[in-house]
Design goal:
alpha/beta, Rossmann fold
Amino acid sequence: MNCSTLSMRSSRSIRRWENRVPSDPASALRRIALYGSAFADRLDQVQALLGDGFETVHVPADLGQAETAQALGDAYAVIAVSTVEGLPLPQGLKLLQVPGIGWDGVKVEHVPASASIANVAGHEIAVAEYCLAQMLDWCHRLRAADAEFRAGSWARSSRYGGGPHRELRGSTVGIIGYGGIGRELARMLKALGVRVVAANRSASAFDDLVDAGFALADIPAMLEQCNFAIVAAALTPQTEGLIGQEALEALGPDGVLVNVARGPVVAEQALYDSLADGRLGGAVIDVWYRYPDRLDAADRAPSRFDFAALPNVVMTPHISGWTEGTASRRVAIIAENLRRAAAGDPLLNVVAMGTRTA
């Protein structure tokens, strides 16, 4: 069992790694490389589940191209959230495993044709709980009450004339994209006495948790009856900008949008303008339009618009799905997929099939 890390740019670090490569060609086919920082903290857990006969190596994204090529070597599988033009993936690659559900950062044309591309879910409970927590907070104004009370104000208390806040029970929540997250959230909401409506590309996705189902083209009509809108649709060419000005205005000045899908599913300028002028009551945004290359990047702004200046926005840095439960489920699924790829067995969660066998 062997898990090594390339953490320096020097050729010496590459040689140390090369010296650990098994000399048996059959063993080399069981080498796995994790490229970049995402999921690197879970690589030891993946290695432990795989056991003997597999070697995992962490390849930092800031290595030069030649060093990266040496580090990736002849790995049969690479774990990565994204690919860039020129990334020297092994030509005999069997599996490009994305360690999350979103694979929009992977360009199929950058991946050898021998490789299948797979993603992994396991985040449905976490994201549903995040959405529920944000809606409950929006109703009960807990963060605002905490901040004001820390500053010495009792004004929200009924004892001193403070007005009542809302309850989530009796609200209508619209879910846009009724997949795993949507179904998990619907189960939670129904237990709280919430009316659930949903819009989806396929009407066959709706179940008895949904009080009314809509086509994607009818989202504005659906949102007219909603207090909250949860955006959970995958980002595709068809869903980019799916939620635009018409839909946001239908949700209205008392409505709140929660985006846990991908930033561009909601039109960026339309969202900002609607929030800034009060045509939309509020938004909780966990997914963004820009992501920095690294934590210390000079430009870390998540959007070209200053959402942080708006008082009716809650902002989080893409955290809704990342819990210990999610991580544990993903480790198990990824390890199983890596094992299947090595054995030539059918893979899980394939989003793009390899076009030739290795």
